[in-house]
Protein backbone atom coordinates (compact mmCIF):
# COMPACT_ATOMS: atom_id res chain seq x y z
CA UNK A 1 0.00 0.00 0.00
CA UNK A 2 1.54 3.30 -1.09
CA UNK A 3 1.42 6.62 0.73
CA UNK A 4 -1.63 7.88 -1.17
CA UNK A 5 -3.62 4.72 -0.47
CA UNK A 6 -2.70 4.86 3.22
CA UNK A 7 -3.91 8.47 3.39
CA UNK A 8 -7.24 7.55 1.78
CA UNK A 9 -7.72 4.63 4.17
CA UNK A 10 -6.87 6.92 7.08
CA UNK A 11 -9.41 9.49 5.91
CA UNK A 12 -12.09 6.80 5.53
CA UNK A 13 -11.35 5.47 9.03
CA UNK A 14 -11.53 8.98 10.49
CA UNK A 15 -14.93 9.51 8.86
CA UNK A 16 -16.14 6.15 10.13
CA UNK A 17 -15.08 6.96 13.69
CA UNK A 18 -16.73 10.37 13.42
CA UNK A 19 -20.15 8.68 13.61
CA UNK A 20 -19.50 7.78 17.25
CA UNK A 21 -19.73 11.45 18.13
CA UNK A 22 -23.43 11.52 17.23
CA UNK A 23 -26.40 9.90 18.96
CA UNK A 24 -26.87 7.28 20.23
CA UNK A 25 -23.14 7.12 21.12
CA UNK A 26 -22.60 10.79 21.91
CA UNK A 27 -18.80 10.89 22.39
CA UNK A 28 -18.69 14.47 21.10
CA UNK A 29 -14.89 14.79 21.19
CA UNK A 30 -14.48 12.11 18.50
CA UNK A 31 -15.68 14.24 15.53
CA UNK A 32 -13.23 16.99 16.55
CA UNK A 33 -10.37 14.50 16.61
CA UNK A 34 -11.54 12.93 13.35
CA UNK A 35 -11.69 16.30 11.62
CA UNK A 36 -8.25 17.20 13.01
CA UNK A 37 -6.93 14.05 11.34
CA UNK A 38 -8.57 15.04 8.05
CA UNK A 39 -7.10 18.55 8.28
CA UNK A 40 -3.65 17.07 8.87
CA UNK A 41 -4.08 14.86 5.79
CA UNK A 42 -5.23 17.85 3.78
CA UNK A 43 -2.11 19.66 4.96
CA UNK A 44 0.05 16.98 3.36
CA UNK A 45 -2.00 16.63 0.17
CA UNK A 46 0.13 17.23 -2.92
CA UNK A 47 -2.62 18.65 -5.12
CA UNK A 48 -6.19 19.92 -5.19
CA UNK A 49 -7.45 16.62 -6.57
CA UNK A 50 -5.65 14.69 -3.80
CA UNK A 51 -7.31 16.91 -1.17
CA UNK A 52 -10.69 16.33 -2.83
CA UNK A 53 -10.23 12.55 -2.77
CA UNK A 54 -9.30 12.69 0.89
CA UNK A 55 -12.49 14.64 1.62
CA UNK A 56 -14.52 12.15 -0.41
CA UNK A 57 -12.98 9.20 1.44
CA UNK A 58 -13.73 10.83 4.81
CA UNK A 59 -17.30 11.51 3.68
CA UNK A 60 -17.84 7.92 2.57
CA UNK A 61 -16.79 6.68 6.00
CA UNK A 62 -19.05 9.19 7.72
CA UNK A 63 -22.16 8.68 5.62
CA UNK A 64 -22.01 4.95 4.92
CA UNK A 65 -21.96 4.38 8.68
CA UNK A 66 -24.04 7.39 9.65
CA UNK A 67 -27.02 7.12 7.28
CA UNK A 68 -26.95 3.40 6.53
CA UNK A 69 -30.49 3.29 7.90
CA UNK A 70 -31.65 4.52 4.49
CA UNK A 71 -31.28 0.87 3.45
CA UNK A 72 -33.87 -0.18 6.05
CA UNK A 73 -36.45 2.25 4.64
CA UNK A 74 -35.79 1.20 1.05
CA UNK A 75 -35.56 -2.56 1.52
CA UNK A 76 -37.51 -3.50 4.65
CA UNK A 77 -40.44 -1.13 4.17
CA UNK A 78 -40.14 0.15 0.61
CA UNK A 79 -39.82 -3.42 -0.74
CA UNK A 80 -36.85 -2.51 -2.93
CA UNK A 81 -34.75 -5.57 -3.89
CA UNK A 82 -31.72 -5.96 -1.64
CA UNK A 83 -28.99 -5.38 -4.27
CA UNK A 84 -30.76 -2.31 -5.56
CA UNK A 85 -31.41 -0.96 -2.04
CA UNK A 86 -27.76 -1.47 -1.13
CA UNK A 87 -26.62 0.25 -4.32
CA UNK A 88 -29.03 3.16 -3.77
CA UNK A 89 -27.79 3.60 -0.18
CA UNK A 90 -24.14 3.62 -1.28
CA UNK A 91 -24.95 5.98 -4.13
CA UNK A 92 -26.64 8.39 -1.73
CA UNK A 93 -23.65 8.20 0.63
CA UNK A 94 -21.35 8.91 -2.31
CA UNK A 95 -23.43 11.93 -3.27
CA UNK A 96 -23.20 13.29 0.27
CA UNK A 97 -19.45 12.59 0.31
CA UNK A 98 -19.05 15.00 -2.60
CA UNK A 99 -19.48 17.89 -0.16
CA UNK A 100 -16.44 17.06 2.02
CA UNK A 101 -14.63 16.50 -1.28
CA UNK A 102 -15.68 19.98 -2.36
CA UNK A 103 -14.39 21.39 0.93
CA UNK A 104 -11.05 19.67 0.40
CA UNK A 105 -10.73 20.97 -3.13
CA UNK A 106 -11.79 24.50 -2.13
CA UNK A 107 -9.36 24.83 0.76
CA UNK A 108 -6.52 23.66 -1.47
CA UNK A 109 -7.59 25.83 -4.40
CA UNK A 110 -7.97 28.94 -2.25
CA UNK A 111 -4.30 28.87 -1.39
CA UNK A 112 -2.95 28.99 -4.91
CA UNK A 113 -1.98 32.39 -6.17
CA UNK A 114 0.53 33.65 -8.71
CA UNK A 115 1.68 30.08 -9.33
CA UNK A 116 2.78 29.50 -5.72
CA UNK A 117 0.93 27.22 -3.34
CA UNK A 118 -0.33 28.57 -0.02
CA UNK A 119 1.10 26.23 2.63
CA UNK A 120 -1.71 23.84 3.49
CA UNK A 121 -0.25 23.16 6.93
CA UNK A 122 -0.07 26.88 7.56
CA UNK A 123 -1.65 27.94 10.86
CA UNK A 124 -4.02 30.36 9.14
CA UNK A 125 -5.15 27.62 6.78
CA UNK A 126 -5.77 25.18 9.63
CA UNK A 127 -7.84 27.53 11.79
CA UNK A 128 -9.49 29.73 9.15
CA UNK A 129 -9.56 28.24 5.63
CA UNK A 130 -10.18 24.56 6.33
CA UNK A 131 -12.91 25.16 8.98
CA UNK A 132 -14.57 27.77 6.77
CA UNK A 133 -14.55 25.47 3.74
CA UNK A 134 -15.91 22.57 5.82
CA UNK A 135 -18.86 24.51 7.23
CA UNK A 136 -19.68 26.13 3.88
CA UNK A 137 -19.86 22.64 2.38
CA UNK A 138 -22.17 21.56 5.22
CA UNK A 139 -24.42 24.53 4.58
CA UNK A 140 -24.58 23.79 0.84
CA UNK A 141 -25.41 20.15 1.59
CA UNK A 142 -28.23 21.31 3.85
CA UNK A 143 -29.63 23.62 1.18
CA UNK A 144 -29.15 22.25 -2.34
CA UNK A 145 -31.87 19.99 -3.84
CA UNK A 146 -34.15 20.74 -0.82
CA UNK A 147 -31.24 19.91 1.50
CA UNK A 148 -30.05 17.05 3.71
CA UNK A 149 -28.27 18.55 6.74
CA UNK A 150 -28.10 15.27 8.66
CA UNK A 151 -24.81 14.68 10.54
CA UNK A 152 -23.69 18.29 10.38
CA UNK A 153 -20.78 18.45 12.81
CA UNK A 154 -22.63 20.79 15.19
CA UNK A 155 -25.28 18.18 16.00
CA UNK A 156 -22.67 16.07 17.78
CA UNK A 157 -22.40 18.93 20.29
CA UNK A 158 -26.06 19.21 21.30
CA UNK A 159 -24.98 18.14 24.80
CA UNK A 160 -21.42 19.46 24.84
CA UNK A 161 -19.90 22.73 26.06
CA UNK A 162 -20.03 24.06 22.50
CA UNK A 163 -23.86 23.96 22.57
CA UNK A 164 -23.67 27.42 24.12
CA UNK A 165 -22.91 28.86 20.68
CA UNK A 166 -26.16 27.52 19.18
CA UNK A 167 -28.42 30.42 20.32
CA UNK A 168 -25.93 32.81 18.71
CA UNK A 169 -25.02 31.16 15.42
CA UNK A 170 -27.12 28.02 15.06
CA UNK A 171 -25.92 24.53 14.26
CA UNK A 172 -23.48 25.75 11.59
CA UNK A 173 -21.94 28.11 14.12
CA UNK A 174 -21.40 25.17 16.46
CA UNK A 175 -19.92 23.25 13.51
CA UNK A 176 -17.57 26.16 12.88
CA UNK A 177 -16.31 26.30 16.47
CA UNK A 178 -15.82 22.51 16.43
CA UNK A 179 -13.96 22.73 13.11
CA UNK A 180 -11.72 25.54 14.37
CA UNK A 181 -11.06 23.37 17.43
CA UNK A 182 -9.98 20.59 15.08
CA UNK A 183 -7.56 22.96 13.34
CA UNK A 184 -6.15 24.07 16.68
CA UNK A 185 -5.65 20.44 17.69
CA UNK A 186 -3.79 19.79 14.45
CA UNK A 187 -1.48 22.71 15.24
CA UNK A 188 -1.04 21.55 18.83
CA UNK A 189 -0.10 18.03 17.75
CA UNK A 190 2.40 19.42 15.26
CA UNK A 191 3.95 22.13 17.41
CA UNK A 192 3.66 20.38 20.79
CA UNK A 193 4.69 22.76 23.57
CA UNK A 194 6.49 25.51 21.72
CA UNK A 195 5.08 29.03 21.54
CA UNK A 196 2.63 28.25 18.74
CA UNK A 197 1.44 25.05 20.43
CA UNK A 198 0.81 26.90 23.67
CA UNK A 199 -1.13 29.60 21.82
CA UNK A 200 -3.26 26.95 20.09
CA UNK A 201 -4.04 25.32 23.44
CA UNK A 202 -4.96 28.68 24.97
CA UNK A 203 -7.36 29.54 22.14
CA UNK A 204 -8.87 26.05 22.33
CA UNK A 205 -9.51 26.50 26.04
CA UNK A 206 -11.09 29.92 25.47
CA UNK A 207 -13.47 28.53 22.83
CA UNK A 208 -14.68 25.64 24.98
CA UNK A 209 -14.88 27.56 28.25
CA UNK A 210 -16.69 30.35 26.38
CA UNK A 211 -19.23 27.81 25.15
CA UNK A 212 -19.77 26.52 28.68
CA UNK A 213 -20.34 30.05 29.96
CA UNK A 214 -22.78 30.81 27.15
CA UNK A 215 -24.84 27.76 28.19
CA UNK A 216 -25.67 29.60 31.41
CA UNK A 217 -27.26 32.53 29.54
CA UNK A 218 -31.08 32.57 29.50
CA UNK A 219 -31.93 34.09 26.13
CA UNK A 220 -35.71 33.70 26.54
CA UNK A 221 -38.20 34.00 29.40
CA UNK A 222 -41.07 31.77 30.58
CA UNK A 223 -44.48 32.56 29.10
CA UNK A 224 -47.43 31.75 31.36
CA UNK A 225 -47.54 28.87 33.78
CA UNK A 226 -46.25 25.31 33.27
CA UNK A 227 -48.86 22.92 31.86
CA UNK A 228 -49.32 19.17 31.63
CA UNK A 229 -48.64 17.28 28.40
CA UNK A 230 -49.11 13.75 27.12
CA UNK A 231 -47.08 12.57 24.12
CA UNK A 232 -48.65 9.46 22.61
CA UNK A 233 -46.44 6.73 21.12
CA UNK A 234 -48.70 4.22 19.38
CA UNK A 235 -45.92 1.88 18.17
CA UNK A 236 -47.70 0.92 14.94
CA UNK A 237 -45.32 -1.09 12.74
CA UNK A 238 -44.65 0.60 9.41
CA UNK A 239 -45.40 -2.49 7.36
CA UNK A 240 -49.00 -2.58 8.66
CA UNK A 241 -49.61 1.14 9.19
CA UNK A 242 -51.60 1.54 5.95
CA UNK A 243 -53.14 -1.94 6.02
CA UNK A 244 -56.94 -1.56 6.00
CA UNK A 245 -57.24 -4.78 7.98
CA UNK A 246 -55.61 -3.20 11.04
CA UNK A 247 -57.04 0.30 10.64
CA UNK A 248 -59.68 -0.16 13.33
CA UNK A 249 -57.04 -1.39 15.76
CA UNK A 250 -54.82 1.61 15.00
CA UNK A 251 -57.64 4.07 15.64
CA UNK A 252 -58.55 2.27 18.86
CA UNK A 253 -54.94 2.36 20.09
CA UNK A 254 -54.68 6.09 19.70
CA UNK A 255 -58.18 6.67 21.10
CA UNK A 256 -57.38 4.65 24.22
CA UNK A 257 -53.98 6.23 24.83
CA UNK A 258 -55.42 9.72 24.32
CA UNK A 259 -58.41 9.33 26.63
CA UNK A 260 -56.54 7.74 29.53
CA UNK A 261 -54.64 10.91 30.43
CA UNK A 262 -55.72 14.24 31.93
CA UNK A 263 -53.10 16.41 30.24
CA UNK A 264 -53.99 19.89 29.06
CA UNK A 265 -52.10 19.27 25.79
CA UNK A 266 -52.13 15.82 24.19
CA UNK A 267 -50.03 15.21 21.07
CA UNK A 268 -50.34 12.33 18.61
CA UNK A 269 -47.53 11.65 16.09
CA UNK A 270 -47.26 12.18 12.36
CA UNK A 271 -50.07 10.45 10.41
CA UNK A 272 -51.20 8.77 13.63
CA UNK A 273 -54.62 8.33 12.02
CA UNK A 274 -53.69 7.00 8.53
CA UNK A 275 -56.74 8.55 6.90
CA UNK A 276 -57.80 11.76 5.21
CA UNK A 277 -59.26 14.25 7.67
CA UNK A 278 -62.73 13.89 6.15
CA UNK A 279 -62.49 10.09 6.53
CA UNK A 280 -61.82 10.12 10.28
CA UNK A 281 -64.96 8.82 12.05
CA UNK A 282 -66.85 11.77 13.47
CA UNK A 283 -67.55 9.84 16.66
CA UNK A 284 -63.79 9.56 17.27
CA UNK A 285 -63.30 13.27 16.59
CA UNK A 286 -66.04 14.14 19.08
CA UNK A 287 -64.56 11.87 21.75
CA UNK A 288 -61.13 13.45 21.37
CA UNK A 289 -62.55 16.97 21.32
CA UNK A 290 -64.76 16.42 24.37
CA UNK A 291 -61.90 14.88 26.32
CA UNK A 292 -59.60 17.80 25.50
CA UNK A 293 -62.25 20.31 26.55
CA UNK A 294 -62.80 18.46 29.81
CA UNK A 295 -59.06 18.89 30.48
CA UNK A 296 -59.24 22.57 29.52
CA UNK A 297 -56.94 22.13 26.55
CA UNK A 298 -56.44 20.58 23.13
CA UNK A 299 -55.33 17.47 21.27
CA UNK A 300 -53.01 17.76 18.25
CA UNK A 301 -53.43 14.91 15.76
CA UNK A 302 -51.35 13.92 12.74
CA UNK A 303 -53.63 13.07 9.82
CA UNK A 304 -53.66 13.50 6.04
CA UNK A 305 -55.80 16.13 4.35
CA UNK A 306 -57.33 16.55 0.92
CA UNK A 307 -58.04 20.02 -0.39
CA UNK A 308 -59.52 20.01 -3.88
CA UNK A 309 -57.05 17.87 -5.86
CA UNK A 310 -54.13 18.33 -3.45
CA UNK A 311 -53.12 16.07 -0.58
CA UNK A 312 -51.21 17.22 2.50
CA UNK A 313 -49.40 15.71 5.45
CA UNK A 314 -51.10 17.73 8.18
CA UNK A 315 -51.73 18.27 11.88
CA UNK A 316 -55.19 19.21 13.22
CA UNK A 317 -56.27 20.62 16.57
CA UNK A 318 -59.31 19.33 18.47
CA UNK A 319 -60.40 20.89 21.76
CA UNK A 320 -61.16 24.24 23.34
CA UNK A 321 -59.67 26.24 20.46
CA UNK A 322 -61.26 26.38 17.04
CA UNK A 323 -60.11 23.57 14.73
CA UNK A 324 -56.90 24.60 12.97
CA UNK A 325 -54.38 22.83 10.80
CA UNK A 326 -50.72 22.92 9.85
CA UNK A 327 -49.59 21.51 6.49
CA UNK A 328 -46.10 20.10 6.06
CA UNK A 329 -44.13 22.30 3.68
CA UNK A 330 -40.67 20.63 3.49
CA UNK A 331 -41.37 17.28 1.85
CA UNK A 332 -39.08 14.26 1.64
CA UNK A 333 -37.78 13.64 -1.92
CA UNK A 334 -38.85 10.21 -3.23
CA UNK A 335 -40.81 9.66 0.00
CA UNK A 336 -43.49 12.36 -0.25
CA UNK A 337 -42.85 13.64 -3.74
CA UNK A 338 -40.90 12.40 -6.75
CA UNK A 339 -38.57 14.95 -8.36
CA UNK A 340 -38.93 15.11 -12.14
CA UNK A 341 -42.02 12.94 -11.89
CA UNK A 342 -42.58 12.91 -15.64
CA UNK A 343 -39.19 11.22 -16.08
CA UNK A 344 -38.73 9.25 -12.86
CA UNK A 345 -42.28 8.59 -11.65
CA UNK A 346 -42.85 5.30 -13.45
CA UNK A 347 -39.43 3.93 -12.56
CA UNK A 348 -39.66 4.85 -8.88
CA UNK A 349 -43.20 3.52 -8.49
CA UNK A 350 -42.16 0.19 -10.04
CA UNK A 351 -39.26 -0.43 -7.65
CA UNK A 352 -40.29 1.39 -4.47
CA UNK A 353 -43.50 0.95 -2.50
CA UNK A 354 -43.99 4.26 -0.69
CA UNK A 355 -47.56 5.29 0.22
CA UNK A 356 -48.54 8.95 -0.13
CA UNK A 357 -45.62 9.78 -2.47
CA UNK A 358 -47.40 12.60 -4.28
CA UNK A 359 -48.13 15.16 -1.58
CA UNK A 360 -48.47 18.92 -1.96
CA UNK A 361 -46.45 21.47 0.00
CA UNK A 362 -48.01 23.68 2.62
CA UNK A 363 -47.27 27.39 2.67
CA UNK A 364 -43.73 28.35 3.67
CA UNK A 365 -45.08 30.65 6.39
CA UNK A 366 -47.97 29.39 8.50
CA UNK A 367 -49.27 30.91 11.69
CA UNK A 368 -48.56 29.00 14.91
CA UNK A 369 -51.42 26.88 16.23
CA UNK A 370 -53.39 28.16 19.22
CA UNK A 371 -53.55 25.23 21.62
CA UNK A 372 -53.68 24.86 25.41
CA UNK A 373 -52.91 28.53 25.89
CA UNK A 374 -49.75 28.28 23.78
CA UNK A 375 -48.70 29.31 20.28
CA UNK A 376 -47.39 26.07 18.82
CA UNK A 377 -44.84 25.98 15.98
CA UNK A 378 -45.60 22.60 14.46
CA UNK A 379 -43.05 20.73 12.35
CA UNK A 380 -43.57 17.33 10.79
CA UNK A 381 -41.00 14.58 10.26
CA UNK A 382 -37.57 15.95 9.33
CA UNK A 383 -38.73 19.55 9.02
CA UNK A 384 -36.98 20.08 12.34
CA UNK A 385 -33.65 19.52 10.56
CA UNK A 386 -33.91 22.99 8.98
CA UNK A 387 -33.28 25.68 11.55
CA UNK A 388 -34.00 28.66 9.32
CA UNK A 389 -37.41 27.23 8.50
CA UNK A 390 -38.28 26.63 12.16
CA UNK A 391 -37.56 30.25 13.12
CA UNK A 392 -40.12 31.55 10.62
CA UNK A 393 -42.78 31.00 13.29
CA UNK A 394 -40.82 33.00 15.89
CA UNK A 395 -41.00 35.06 18.00
CA UNK A 396 -44.78 34.52 17.95
CA UNK A 397 -44.53 30.81 18.81
CA UNK A 398 -44.02 29.88 22.46
CA UNK A 399 -43.54 26.14 21.96
CA UNK A 400 -42.06 23.79 19.32
CA UNK A 401 -43.72 20.44 18.58
CA UNK A 402 -42.31 17.78 16.27
CA UNK A 403 -44.67 15.13 14.86
CA UNK A 404 -42.64 12.19 13.55
CA UNK A 405 -42.88 8.64 12.28
CA UNK A 406 -39.38 7.14 12.32
CA UNK A 407 -40.77 3.61 12.11
CA UNK A 408 -39.41 3.65 8.53
CA UNK A 409 -35.93 3.03 9.97
CA UNK A 410 -36.67 0.08 12.24
CA UNK A 411 -34.25 -0.42 15.12
CA UNK A 412 -31.44 1.64 13.57
CA UNK A 413 -29.91 4.74 15.17
CA UNK A 414 -31.88 7.11 12.91
CA UNK A 415 -34.42 7.96 15.62
CA UNK A 416 -31.73 8.91 18.16
CA UNK A 417 -30.00 11.08 15.58
CA UNK A 418 -33.33 12.75 14.84
CA UNK A 419 -33.93 13.45 18.51
CA UNK A 420 -30.47 15.05 18.72
CA UNK A 421 -31.42 17.34 15.84
CA UNK A 422 -34.50 18.44 17.77
CA UNK A 423 -32.27 19.29 20.73
CA UNK A 424 -30.39 21.74 18.52
CA UNK A 425 -33.64 23.43 17.43
CA UNK A 426 -34.54 23.97 21.09
CA UNK A 427 -31.12 25.49 21.73
CA UNK A 428 -31.32 27.79 18.73
CA UNK A 429 -34.76 29.14 19.56
CA UNK A 430 -34.83 29.11 23.36
CA UNK A 431 -38.06 27.10 23.22
CA UNK A 432 -39.03 23.70 24.56
CA UNK A 433 -39.43 20.99 21.94
CA UNK A 434 -42.06 18.27 22.41
CA UNK A 435 -41.61 15.20 20.20
CA UNK A 436 -44.52 12.81 19.61
CA UNK A 437 -43.41 9.84 17.52
CA UNK A 438 -44.94 6.59 16.37
CA UNK A 439 -42.14 4.27 17.54
CA UNK A 440 -39.66 6.70 19.18
CA UNK A 441 -37.80 8.73 20.17
CA UNK A 442 -40.69 10.41 22.02
CA UNK A 443 -39.25 13.07 24.31
CA UNK A 444 -39.60 16.35 26.16
CA UNK A 445 -36.63 18.66 25.47
CA UNK A 446 -35.98 21.75 27.56
CA UNK A 447 -35.31 25.22 26.20
CA UNK A 448 -31.63 24.62 26.97
CA UNK A 449 -31.56 21.61 24.64
CA UNK A 450 -31.36 18.99 27.38
CA UNK A 451 -33.63 15.94 27.19
CA UNK A 452 -35.85 16.10 30.29
CA UNK A 453 -37.94 12.97 29.71
CA UNK A 454 -37.85 10.24 27.10
CA UNK A 455 -39.76 7.04 26.35
CA UNK A 456 -38.14 3.73 25.42
CA UNK A 457 -38.47 3.05 21.72
CA UNK A 458 -40.89 0.51 20.21
CA UNK A 459 -43.25 0.61 23.16
CA UNK A 460 -46.99 1.38 23.10
CA UNK A 461 -47.49 4.04 25.76
CA UNK A 462 -47.72 7.77 26.45
CA UNK A 463 -45.19 10.13 28.00
CA UNK A 464 -46.80 12.24 30.74
CA UNK A 465 -44.90 15.35 31.74
CA UNK A 466 -44.86 19.10 32.16
CA UNK A 467 -43.96 21.78 29.62
CA UNK A 468 -43.40 25.52 29.74
CA UNK A 469 -43.95 28.13 27.06
CA UNK A 470 -41.24 30.73 26.37
CA UNK A 471 -41.13 34.16 24.79
CA UNK A 472 -38.34 36.37 23.51
CA UNK A 473 -35.76 35.81 20.79
CA UNK A 474 -32.25 34.49 20.59
CA UNK A 475 -29.63 36.08 18.31
CA UNK A 476 -30.05 33.12 15.94
CA UNK A 477 -33.78 33.77 15.63
CA UNK A 478 -32.94 37.35 14.68
CA UNK A 479 -30.09 36.62 12.26
CA UNK A 480 -30.59 33.06 11.06
CA UNK A 481 -27.61 31.57 9.24
CA UNK A 482 -26.56 34.98 7.91
CA UNK A 483 -24.41 35.62 11.00
CA UNK A 484 -22.28 32.48 10.66
CA UNK A 485 -21.96 32.99 6.90
CA UNK A 486 -20.65 36.51 7.56
CA UNK A 487 -18.25 35.15 10.15
CA UNK A 488 -16.91 32.59 7.67
CA UNK A 489 -16.50 35.31 5.05
CA UNK A 490 -14.46 37.38 7.52
CA UNK A 491 -12.31 34.36 8.40
CA UNK A 492 -11.55 33.62 4.76
CA UNK A 493 -10.88 37.29 4.05
CA UNK A 494 -8.47 37.43 6.99
CA UNK A 495 -6.61 34.36 5.72
CA UNK A 496 -6.44 35.81 2.21
CA UNK A 497 -5.07 39.14 3.44
CA UNK A 498 -2.50 37.37 5.61
CA UNK A 499 -1.50 35.24 2.64
CA UNK A 500 -0.95 38.33 0.50
CA UNK A 501 1.29 40.04 3.05
CA UNK A 502 5.04 39.34 2.92
CA UNK A 503 6.32 37.18 5.77
CA UNK A 504 7.59 39.10 8.77
CA UNK A 505 11.34 39.01 9.31
CA UNK A 506 12.71 37.48 12.51
CA UNK A 507 13.61 40.07 15.13
CA UNK A 508 17.36 39.41 14.78
CA UNK A 509 17.28 39.47 10.99
CA UNK A 510 20.05 41.76 9.76
CA UNK A 511 19.41 41.33 6.09
CA UNK A 512 17.56 44.29 4.65
CA UNK A 513 14.49 43.86 2.50
CA UNK A 514 16.41 45.10 -0.52
CA UNK A 515 19.05 42.35 -0.25
CA UNK A 516 16.64 39.40 0.09
CA UNK A 517 16.52 36.97 -2.82
CA UNK A 518 13.41 36.95 -5.01
CA UNK A 519 12.39 33.53 -3.76
CA UNK A 520 12.66 34.51 -0.07
CA UNK A 521 8.93 34.17 0.68
CA UNK A 522 8.75 30.65 -0.70
CA UNK A 523 11.85 29.67 1.24
CA UNK A 524 10.61 30.76 4.67
CA UNK A 525 7.30 29.05 4.05
CA UNK A 526 9.07 25.85 3.17
CA UNK A 527 7.45 25.65 -0.27
CA UNK A 528 9.60 26.55 -3.26
CA UNK A 529 7.99 28.53 -6.01
CA UNK A 530 7.21 26.52 -9.11
CA UNK A 531 10.22 26.08 -11.39
CA UNK A 532 12.82 26.75 -8.68
CA UNK A 533 13.56 23.16 -7.74
CA UNK A 534 13.93 21.88 -4.21
CA UNK A 535 15.10 24.83 -2.17
CA UNK A 536 15.87 24.05 1.44
CA UNK A 537 14.24 26.44 3.92
CA UNK A 538 16.45 28.44 6.24
CA UNK A 539 16.96 27.23 9.81
CA UNK A 540 13.78 27.70 11.85
CA UNK A 541 13.72 30.65 14.21
CA UNK A 542 10.13 30.11 15.33
CA UNK A 543 6.97 30.35 13.27
CA UNK A 544 4.12 32.75 13.42
CA UNK A 545 0.47 31.80 12.74
CA UNK A 546 0.86 32.81 9.12
CA UNK A 547 4.05 30.94 8.34
CA UNK A 548 4.59 27.40 7.12
CA UNK A 549 6.92 24.68 8.24
Mean pLDDT across residues: 88
Integer-rounded radius of gyration: 26 Å
Give the termini distance in whole angstroms: 27 Å
Instruction: Outline the biggest β-sheet.
Output: 7 strands, mixed
Measured as a percent range, the helix fraction is 40-55%
**How many E strands?**
15
The number of distinct helices, counting runs of at least 4 residues, comes to 16
What sort of overall outline do the alpha carbons produce when their principal axes are compared? globular
Strand content: 15-25%
Structural class: alpha/beta
Poorly predicted sequence stretches spanning 5 or more consecutive residues: 113-121, 505-549
List the helices and strands and how they pair.
Blueprint (H helix, E strand, L loop, with lengths): L2 H16 L10 H16 L3 H19 L3 H8 L4 H28 L2 E2 L2 E2 L5 H19 L24 H26 L3 H20 L6 E13 L13 H13 L5 E3 L5 E4 L5 H13 L3 E10 L2 E10 L5 E3 L13 H11 L17 E3 L2 E7 L6 H4 L8 E6 L9 H16 L3 E5 L5 E3 L5 E4 L6 E11 L3 H5 L2 H19 L19 H6 L24
Parallel strand pairs: 3-4, 4-6, 5-6, 10-11, 11-12
Antiparallel strand pairs: 1-2, 3-15, 6-7, 7-8, 9-10, 12-13, 13-14
Q: How would you characterize this protein structure?
A:
The protein is α/β, with parallel strands linked by helices. The chain is built from 16 helices and 15 strands. Strands 3, 4, 5, 6, 7, 8 and 15 form a 7-stranded mixed β-sheet that branches. A 6-stranded mixed β-sheet has the order 9-10-11-12-13-14, with helices on one face. The longest helix has 28 residues, at 82-109. The radius of gyration is 26 Å and the shape is globular.
Amino acid sequence: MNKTQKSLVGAFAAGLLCVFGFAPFGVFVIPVLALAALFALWGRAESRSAAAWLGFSFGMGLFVAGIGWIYVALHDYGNMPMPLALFATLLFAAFLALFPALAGYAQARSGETRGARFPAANGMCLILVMPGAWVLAEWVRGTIFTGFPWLALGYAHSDSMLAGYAPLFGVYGVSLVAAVSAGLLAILLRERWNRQGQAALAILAVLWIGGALLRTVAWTQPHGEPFSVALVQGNIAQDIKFDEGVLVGTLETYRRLSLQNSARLTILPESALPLMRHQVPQALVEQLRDHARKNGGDILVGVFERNNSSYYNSVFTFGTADEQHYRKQHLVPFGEFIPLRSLLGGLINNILNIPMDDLARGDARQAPLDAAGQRVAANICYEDAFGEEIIRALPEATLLVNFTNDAWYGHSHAAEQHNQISQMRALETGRMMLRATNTGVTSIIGADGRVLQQLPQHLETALDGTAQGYEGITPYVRWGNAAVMLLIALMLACAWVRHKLPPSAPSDEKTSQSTRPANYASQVDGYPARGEGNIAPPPSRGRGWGEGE
